[in-house]
Write a structure and sequence with these properties.
9 helices; five-stranded mixed beta sheet; alpha+beta
């Protein structure tokens, strides 16, 4: 039980609820104290207004008829209001009492506290037992005497006492209301956060990325948190799926050269053909190891290009000349496959590029075009100026690319299903895009299935 209580006190809803209760309690005390103060002042003001009115009345009577008239008037008034009699005292200038009317409940009061001088204080309060105050107002008369009028003011003490009782009764429910109300509100507000916690724990425990956080209906920051967290989970799920696909592709592309490498080495060990046979086996093994090294090197180049770490040795170069080099390199491959290559290469297409990297871009694009163009097909290549840029177009009449796969062809190690029958790493287009963007250029593609594709590379032209 104590452990559960300890865990409860450590939760955020309890701590926030405790803060709510504390703030609520302090606010309630301040408000109630202000009301108490204003209520007491209002009662005070009311009592004083009554006494002042009575004082002015008695001063007028005294001015009209002196002590006899005042004694008769007070007797008549106190007889009519026996329960609320007024204290009246007239003190001459020498301090002797000329007249004194004492209510019955003032008999035990210490009236020596009341000044008798002509310059007496206007208001005096004499505290008695049983929470009864005697409030007395004084005024100077024309003949130098002082008249004092007062009345018991127990209503203030009674009403304020009731107020204190009510305050003591409601303060505990107010504290509990603040505490539990704060806990309930905070608990409801924390539901999206708990959803995030539960989703993260589920992903850690099960490794599944299809978990989602329930999105609250309220349009607030917590809803934004849940939506963004779900979006992050979707991105991570797609990233892990792409990573698995990439690993599958890497494994697929490495398995073949490694298997051939192993078979070549085993054949060399078991072959009794002498030194020549061993030398041939080693040569084949080196070729296969170079294929593996090419895959790894290309992966590293793509990673460096995507992170901005690719080193470029730039110089002024003619892109038409670089494209001619790539065409010349693949002329034999195109001829063997019976694919025609037509060119339109303008002169003076100068750009500041790394020549070797740009040859690699053009070679990869041309290799793909020849690879996916059937025998008897045609490839049209053009290089020219286009609004301050050098535009390189390569259009083939090959198998084309499905519209759904077009956005993914630039992903690392991605290969469309129809291309898996062709030998390749799935890194060519990803490397092309990385190198072009490293040169502050861009690459685009349009394609129609079974009609062909067109790749366009745009690079800043030298001014």
């Amino acid at each position: 039980m104590f452990s559960r209580l300890r865990e409860l006190t450590r939760t955020l809803p309890f701590r926030v609820g405790l803060w709510y209760a504390s703030i609520f309690l302090i606010s309630a005390i301040l408000v109630l104290w202000l009301v108490y103060f204003l209520f007491g002042a209002a009662i005070n003001r009311k009592d004083r207004d009554v006494i002042e009115a009575r004082l002015r009345e008695y001063v007028a009577v005294y001015d009209h008829g002196g002590i006899p008239a005042l004694r008769e008037w007070t007797h008549r008034i106190n007889k009519a209001r026996a329960e609320r009699m007024f204290f009246v005292r007239v003190t001459k200038f020498d301090g002797t009492v000329a007249m004194s009317v004492m209510p019955e409940d003032w008999s035990d009061s210490d009236l020596n506290l009341l000044p008798r001088s002509a310059n007496a204080t206007n208001w005096v309060r004499v505290a008695r037992e049983r929470d009864v105050d005697l409030t007395v107002a004084s005024a100077a008369l024309p003949d130098g005497a002082v008249i004092q009028v007062g009345r018991s003011s127990d209503s203030r003490s009674k009403l304020l006492g009731k107020f204190r009782e009510v305050f003591g009764t409601v303060i505990l429910p107010l504290i509990l209301l603040g505490l539990f109300g704060g806990m309930i509100l905070t608990n409801r507000m924390m539901q999206p956060v708990r959803g995030v916690i539960n989703a993260a724990a589920s992903i850690i425990n099960t490794g599944r990325m299809d978990v989602r956080v329930p999105v609250p209906s309220a349009n607030d920051e917590l809803r934004d948190l849940a939506v963004l967290f779900n979006r992050m989970l979707v991105c991570n799920e797609e990233l892990f799926r792409a990573l698995r696909d990439s690993l599958d592709n890497v494994a697929h592309d490495l398995r073949t050269p490694l298997a051939r490498l192993r078979a070549t080495l085993e054949a060399g060990l078991s072959d009794d053909g002498g030194a020549d046979a061993v030398r041939d086996s080693i040569a084949h093994a080196l070729e296969e190891s170079e294929q593996v090294q090419t895959i790894i090197t290309t992966l590293m180049e793509v990673a460096r290009a995507e992170t901005g770490g690719m080193q470029l040795h730039v110089d002024h170069a003619d892109l038409s000349k670089l494209m001619s080099d790539a065409i010349e390199l693949y002329a034999h491959v195109a001829e063997e496959k019976n694919v025609a290559v037509a060119t339109q290469l303008d002169d003076g297409c100068l750009a500041t590029v790394d020549s070797s990297r740009m040859r690699q871009v053009f070679a990869n694009l041309l290799d793909n075009a020849i690879k996916y163009t059937p025998s008897g097909g045609r490839i049209v290549i053009s290089v020219g100026h286009d609004d301050g840029e050098i535009a390189v177009n390569m259009r083939d009449s090959g198998v084309g690319i499905d519209e759904a796969e077009l956005p993914r062809i630039w992903e690392r190690l991605y290969r469309a299903d129809k291309s898996r029958a062709e030998h390749g790493l799935g890194l060519g287009l990803n490397l092309v895009k990385a190198i072009v963007e490293a040169h502050h250029g861009r690459v685009e593609v349009t394609s129609v299935p079974r009609q062909g594709s067109e790749f366009r590379v745009y690079l800043p032209a030298d001014q």
